[in-house]
């Protein structure tokens, strides 16, 4: 059973549209949730983290968490071509030393 | 730049070679990690060092041997690798806390692209 699942994509959206990236996780004890962005040939970089149910906004990015449904999402408003990358969902459970990563969703923003 | 430096960036090695990957950070972090990233697979945790002590080893084959001489440096020694070991190897560091709470994000190095021929 996969710990963290993401649709691998590719997800294509036109410039200026909202991109919606989704992630589900299997461990109900998970407490911390992270979204990383990885450009081709580069290392992952943190975009957002969220711990509480609901929405968390940071600029054009909004993370949404629903622990009952074991679901976390990332919305990117006013998508730009520079947002084209692979987005990795990562989940941490209390007491664990590890972050569990999904396979990532490849996003392409079309000019 | 994240403050985590990995060398070399690219490595091609034969199955009988011995090589080492190096990771260095001067962020004051005291937990360091090796991850393996293969195509179409999630990032896989290989080793965790906390305060220079190995705290996790996820059933990694013995042909991978980590070394953490101090909190700023982490090595991954490679010997008699197989072609399926070809992947991107990522080092990460973070401050050691009780959990992955606020301000405890992992900072990744640029990775070493390893090809085993």
Textual characterization of the structure:
The complex is a heterodimer of chains A (111) and B (117). Chain A contains no helices and 11 strands. Chain A has 111 residues and is mainly beta. In chain A, strands 2, 4, 5, 9, 10 and 11 form a 6-stranded mixed beta sheet that branches. Chain A has a 5-stranded antiparallel beta sheet with strand order 1-3-8-7-6, with no helix packed on it. Chain A is globular. Chain A starts with a strand and ends with a strand. Chain B is an all-beta fold. Chain B contains no helices and 11 strands. Chain B has strands spanning 4-7, 10-13, 18-25, 31-37, 44-50, 53-57, 64-70, 73-79, 87-94, 107-108, 112-116. In chain B, strands 2, 4, 5, 6, 9, 10 and 11 form a 7-stranded mixed beta sheet that branches. In chain B, strands 1-3-8-7 form a 4-stranded antiparallel beta sheet, with no helix packed on it. The radius of gyration of chain B is 14 Å and the shape is globular. Chain B starts with a strand and ends with a strand. The interface between A and B is medium-sized, with 27 and 23 residues.
């Amino acid at each position: 059973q996969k710990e963290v699942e993401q649709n691998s994509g590719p997800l294509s959206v036109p410039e200026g549209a909202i991109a919606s990236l989704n992630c589900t996780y299997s461990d109900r004890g998970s407490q911390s949730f992270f979204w990383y962005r990885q450009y081709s040939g580069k290392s992952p970089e943190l975009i957002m983290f969220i711990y509480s149910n609901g929405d968390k906004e940071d600029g054009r990015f909004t993370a949404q968490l629903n622990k009952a449904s074991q679901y976390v999402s990332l919305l990117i408003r006013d998508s730009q071509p520079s947002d084209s990358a692979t987005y990795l969902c990562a989940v941490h459970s209390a007491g664990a030393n590890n972050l569990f990563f999904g396979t990532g969703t490849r996003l392409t923003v079309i000019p | 730049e994240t403050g985590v430096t990995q060398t070399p960036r690219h490595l091609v090695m034969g199955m009988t070679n011995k090589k080492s990957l190096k990771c260095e950070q001067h962020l004051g972090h005291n937990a360091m990690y090796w991850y393996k990233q293969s195509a179409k697979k999630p990032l896989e945790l290989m080793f965790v060092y906390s305060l220079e002590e190995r705290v996790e080893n996820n059933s990694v084959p013995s042909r991978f041997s980590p070394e953490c001489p101090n909190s700023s440096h982490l090595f991954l020694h490679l010997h008699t690798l197989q072609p399926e070991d070809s992947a991107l190897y990522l080092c990460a560091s973070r401050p050691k806390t009780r959990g992955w709470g606020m301000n405890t994000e992992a900072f990744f190095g640029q990775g070493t692209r390893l090809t085993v021929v």
